[in-house]
């Protein structure tokens, strides 16, 4: 249960994460409290419970980060549903049981990733920020192709691609080679052989044999890629403590 970066190892709390972390405790609780105390002044935790809240917060947070320009890093780790029921289609009262069962029609959640970079123009929410998103699949054969499609369609800089079966122990970072986006690949989802993709590079991170968490390795690698991006584009000193944002469900 990932309610915030510092409480994800704890059981789902009855209190808000901030209150939980300010209380006493032992073991994992104590470690989470220490990590929270170290970063508290630089962490603004914004909770959400609906897709509407998430999309509005994503827009507002991205627009604020626009001031950081290329030093901004947007890390979209929130697990957002692909489908939803619009407010105007929600039942006002309890749905009564019927002998015929219940048919539920779900709508696709609006794809807002493209609004962040604005198609490479200047009208995006944070067009110069480094944009990192996640892609989770159960079929390894289409994973890289789906990640490449996201890069091309939404202007994403890095896609953290993982499989449901191994997401805690292995992730693959997918990013475009050079300035040109990768070729668009159409997949059905049922492929058994890996779909070939051109125009992308990959880096695979594995959980060390001694255990622990994969996330510190992932964050460190993304920070390194951000430093390289800044150095290549601006010839500036690599980012240390620069503006960054992480959205976590």
UniProtKB/TrEMBL annotation:
UniProt-listed GO biological process terms: coenzyme A biosynthetic process
Please name the SUPFAM superfamilies in this protein's record: CoaB-like
Q: Which domain of life is it from?
A: Eukaryota
Q: Which residues form the DNA/pantothenate metabolism flavoprotein C-terminal domain?
A: 63-167
InterPro entries, from UniProt? CoaB-like_sf (IPR035929), DNA/pantothenate-metab_flavo_C (IPR007085)
Q: One MF term in GO for this entry?
A: catalytic activity
Q: Tell me its family.
A: Belongs to the PPC synthetase family.
What name goes with this protein?
Answer: DNA/pantothenate metabolism flavoprotein C-terminal domain-containing protein
Task: Record the organism.
Answer: Coccolithus braarudii
> What is this organism's lineage?
Eukaryota, Haptista, Haptophyta, Prymnesiophyceae, Coccolithales
């Amino acid at each position: 249960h990932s309610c915030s970066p510092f409480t994800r190892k704890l059981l789902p709390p009855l209190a808000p994460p901030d209150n939980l972390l300010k209380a006493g405790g032992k073991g994992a609780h104590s470690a989470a409290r220490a990590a929270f105390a170290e970063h508290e002044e630089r962490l603004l935790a914004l909770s959400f419970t609906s897709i509407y809240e998430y999309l509005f917060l994503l827009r507002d947070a991205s627009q604020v980060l626009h001031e950081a320009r290329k030093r901004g890093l947007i890390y979209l780790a929130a697990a957002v549903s692909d489908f939803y029921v619009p407010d105007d289609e929600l039942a006002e009262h309890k749905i009564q049981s019927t002998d015929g069962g219940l048919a539920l029609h779900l709508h696709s959640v609006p794809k807002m990733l493209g609004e962040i970079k604005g198609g490479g123009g200047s009208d995006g929410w944070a067009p110069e920020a480094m944009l990192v998103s996640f892609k989770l699949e159960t079929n390894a054969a289409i994973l890289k192709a789906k990640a490449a499609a996201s890069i091309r369609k939404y202007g994403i800089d890095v896609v953290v691609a993982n499989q449901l079966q191994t997401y805690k122990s292995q992730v693959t970072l997918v990013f475009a080679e050079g300035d040109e986006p990768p070729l668009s690949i159409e997949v059905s989802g049922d492929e058994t052989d890996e779909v070939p993709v051109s125009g992308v590079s990959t880096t695979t991170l594995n959980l060390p044999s001694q255990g622990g968490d994969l996330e510190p390795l992932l964050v460190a690698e993304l920070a390194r890629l951000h430093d390289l991006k800044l150095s290549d584009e601006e010839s500036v000193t690599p980012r240390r403590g620069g503006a960054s944002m992480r959205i976590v469900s």
